[in-house]
Design goal:
42% of the residues lie in helices and 11% in strands. It is of the alpha/beta class. It has one domain: Aldolase class I (TIM Barrel), CATH 3.20.20.70. The strands form two sheets. It has an eight-stranded parallel sheet with strand order 3-10-9-8-7-6-5-4. Helix 5 links the parallel strand 4 and strand 5 (124-127). Helix 1 packs across helix 15 and helix 14 (311-319) crosses helix 16.
């Protein structure tokens, strides 16, 4: 019986090859920020209220102008299609059916065109800024052609943080057929059968779209040198002008950067430390959220990402001022555990936990939730 996100995680660990499970469930260096992202939510305690009419509750809201059945979006996650065959398509369909935004990563296995062809409503596209500006320009054009309704620009991956497990596992997509990998994959027959039944096994947004990148070896060489350490706010302005639609800036942790994001003219920002996968030793996302909110006021819509494992975590973030919350690893656990059904189960669990907790705090409308539902910190 699946009753919470942890149940999905345990099942995913059994069913997904080690290198891809570790890719999803790890952080950089000593993983202190990765762990703090989760544990720091526990410092926020709820005020329980009683004898209040809890009927007719609503979790409906908007994120960056898009209607959502709850203040939750699916975060962009690289290699989602390695947790389960066609994972991005399965997750996008589940999000569409549930009524929450889905964000496709630049480093996805299924391409922008694949997801667009297998869904009926617009989704969001997450963009990394590469040194090859021609490729970036083409990605934006492809997102426009696919009718993506928002562009999520990631700002915190100019230099790739070191993740020890990925190095030790020899992470690649598709996996290299070394003896340890073959032995491990033999213990995951369901995953293997799924992968044999799909043509999507490498980075669909890159292979075939970049000159000189036609196979795994050339792709590895290309990506190793493409993340751009010279990324600046001038590039943000260029992308904003090129895109012309809703723009969300991801990776803001500092109040000063939040003010720069607000002045950039973006529609929203995401308080995010990349899931603890970049700067180890940084603050957790939930700890950074209040400072960012204070710095920007009502000047820009603020979302947050990192460490969310329940509907209660979503409510805590909303209480601190987040307009929306992104879930990444819970969706990957759901995919690895049960495919598209697992993503739907993940969303159902979070929705139910959010609804019940909001009610027990004496609230019936998520858009009216604020710090009044939290106890003062001692």
């Amino acid at each position: 019986m699946i009753t919470n996100i942890e149940d999905l995680r345990v099942l995913a660990e059994r069913r997904v090859p080690r290198m891809f499970y570790d890719y999803a469930d790890s952080g950089s260096w000593s993983e202190t920020t990765y762990r703090a992202n989760v544990s720091d939510f526990n410092d926020l305690k709820f005020r329980q209220r009683v004898a209040i009419n809890m009927e007719n509750r609503s979790l409906k809201t908007t994120m960056a102008g898009q209607d959502a059945t709850m203040p939750v979006a699916i975060a962009p996650c690289g290699m989602t299609g390695m947790q389960r065959a066609d994972g991005e398509i399965l997750a996008a369909r589940a999000a569409e059916q549930f009524g929450v935004p889905f964000t496709l990563s630049t480093m996805s296995i299924a391409s922008i065109e694949d997801v667009a062809a297998n869904t009926s409503k617009p989704f969001w596209f997450q963009l990394y800024v590469m040194k090859d500006r021609g490729f970036v320009n083409d990605l934006i054009d492809r997102a426009k052609a696919a009718k993506c309704s928002a562009l999520v620009l990631t700002l915190d991956l100019q230099i790739l943080g070191q993740r020890h497990k990925d190095l030790k596992n020899g992470l690649s997509a598709p996996p290299k057929l070394t003896l340890p990998n073959i032995v491990n994959m033999m213990t995951k027959p369901g995953w293997c059968m799924g992968m044999l039944g799909t043509k999507r096994r490498t980075f669909g947004n890159i292979v075939g779209h970049v000159k000189g990148v036609e196979n795994m070896s050339s792709l590895s060489a290309w990506t190793a040198q493409q993340f751009d350490p010279a990324l600046s706010w001038d590039d943000v302005q260029w992308i904003k002008d090129k895109w012309g639609g809703k723009l969300i800036l991801k990776g803001i942790m500092d109040p000063e950067d939040a003010q720069l994001a607000m002045r950039s003219g973006a529609d929203a920002l995401i308080v995010s430390n990349h899931g603890g996968r970049q700067l180890d030793g940084a603050a957790s996302s939930i700890a950074a959220l209040p400072g960012v909110i204070e710095a920007v006021g009502d000047g820009i819509e603020v979302h947050m990402d990192g460490g969310v494992r329940s509907g209660q975590d979503v409510l805590r973030a909303v209480a601190l001022g987040a307009r929306g919350v992104y879930i990444g690893r819970p969706v990957l656990y759901g995919l690895g555990a049960m495919g598209g059904e697992g993503v739907s189960k993940c969303l159902e669990l979070i929705h139910k936990e959010l609804d019940i907790t909001m009610a027990l705090c004496g609230q019936t409308d998520i858009q009216k939730v604020g710090r009044q539902i939290l106890l003062p910190r001692s």
